[in-house]
Write the structure tokens for this entry.
Amino acid sequence: MKNKSVQTEIDACYLYRKLAENESDESVANIFRQMSEIEQSHAEAFAQKQNISTENLILPSWRAKTLNTIGKVFGYDYVLGALMDTEKSLSNAIIRTKERNKMEITGTETNHVKILWSILEKDNSISGTQQARFEKRHKTVGGNAIRAAVLGGNDGLVSNFSLVMGVAGATTSQEGVLLAGVAGLLAGALSMALGEWISVKSSQELYENQMAVEMDELETNPAGEERELALIYMAKGIPETQARTMAAEIMTDKTKAHAVLIKEELGINPEELQGSAIEASLYSFFLFTIGAIIPVAPFFFADGLLALLLCVSFSAVGLFLIGTAITLFTGKSVWFSGLRQVAFGLAAAGITFGIGKLIGVAIA
């Protein structure tokens, strides 16, 4: 059986190759091809160390194939986000292991995302516009919509499963359980949607205010802003004379100077402020609803013990699938992650059912 490290590198090689095949910008596609080659060399090195025949290093895992399918359906930006998050978690695990074993940290443990950025910075064929585009894409998928979907569905399922079980423990009324389940679904989904709207909107307003302040500073104290910009470039390793020249040239165009300052000083990409708060809130509402409908669904067509057993069964299956989906990011065993999710979900529901039972007895 192939070593897990070998399989991880094979999967990364496969996914970077798919990213290259589906990238319209040839310069960026070339970067992905280089990363694929790097991952292939890692796979061969691990295979040689584990005495695994290199002839077997051709098949990606189900995880990699699933991510590729997601890329085909929803776009490969999702794949890039999941791939980079996985590599970051793996590199952090290597560093923690070395620290625990008191081994030397050489710097080679850093994740492959940094290698990718190194290629971007050194490849003269990559324009500043392309780098900005790639950076925006990476930041956008860094939060990872796939993960958001998994966590949103999990929140809905676990919270409403626990609520339904708690009410079922307190009463034998199917109507009461159904009403509580539907109410919990709507209340949770609306709360998630409102929270997401507030989060996105407040971030946009904060950044817009910071950008306005920066423009005021630029108009009232241009000399100070020029010195500040020169210091930023010097902190990046640019010689002082060159940094001051660059800052002076940029300050000749106020619009350009403002754009550079909000990016270099504030770390804000204006394009990221164009996201819709309403779209984000609807997305959260939809994801929470998908998870929350699972435990309450049986009470629409069954009652009594059958409805309760179906509720537990449906929820257990949903929890296992969510645990399986989580392995897209963690690389853990499907059975381990799935069963762990089921255990935690059933434990939460069992506790609320017990509490409901106690309350029901006390009221009776």
Notes: The chain has a mean pLDDT of 77. The chain has 14 helices and no strands. The chain has three domains: 4-142, 145-198+276-363, 205-274.
